Amino acid sequence: MGQVRVRAGLVVALGAAFAAASLPARAIPRLDLKPYPAPAADELRWVIQLPGLLPPTRDPSFSADPADWRVQLIAGKTLPLDCNQHRLGGKLKPETIPGWGYTLFRLTEVGPMLSTRKACPPGEPLRPQFVSAGSKPFVVPYNASLPVVVYTPKGYELRWRIWKAEKETRRAQEI
């Protein structure tokens, strides 16, 4: 079976799989990767198992309803960089798994790194920085029932964060 990468700080599938092993035999584990293909030789498979319940937000203006949440997927690399702003080429594209209807995401069209070209202070050392691929935030619906599965080329990593909507909706101005 393909490799499942785990990054510190992520709520990932392996923790759920180990927890499921200690449950009674009739329990259904939350993580089932059978529908998802093994990664190709030149790629990695990243798995995110979203928590079913998040701690309540301290800000009462945000919705506590998971239907109002989204998950941002951020693929990229950590590289030693100068003071300029950097971005990698690439797009996350959804694919439907035939026969299952589940969605996986694949980082495609990876390209060269783009950078501003300002003069950095002389002698300033390079610092390790995470550089994201693509120019727009890539968000998917929050669904704790299914893992979020992303395939990237080797050398890339995946990060994620949750976006929560405000409770209040506002009426648009008709012109």
Architecture blueprint of SSEs:
Layout: E1 4-5, H1 13-21, E2 43-48, E3 69-81, E4 86-88, E5 91-96, E6 103-108, E7 113-115, E8 127-132, E9 138-141, E10 148-153, E11 157-164
Parallel strand pairs: 1-2, 6-10
Antiparallel strand pairs: 2-10, 3-8, 3-9, 3-11, 4-7, 5-6
Outline the structure in words.
This protein is mainly β and 175 residues long. The protein has one helix at residues 13-21, and strands at residues 4-5, 43-48, 69-81, 86-88, 91-96, 103-108, 113-115, 127-132, 138-141, 148-153, 157-164. The chain is globular.
- Considering DSSP H and I runs of 4 or more, what fraction of the residues is helical? under 10%
Distance between the amino and carboxyl termini: 57 Å
Average pLDDT reading: 83
Q: What fraction of the residues are assigned to beta strands by DSSP? A: 35-45%
Tags for this model:
175 residues, mainly beta, 5-stranded mixed sheet, 4-stranded antiparallel sheet, 1 helix, disordered N terminus
Task: Give a quick summary of the entry.
This protein is 5% helix and 36% strand. By secondary structure, it is mainly β.
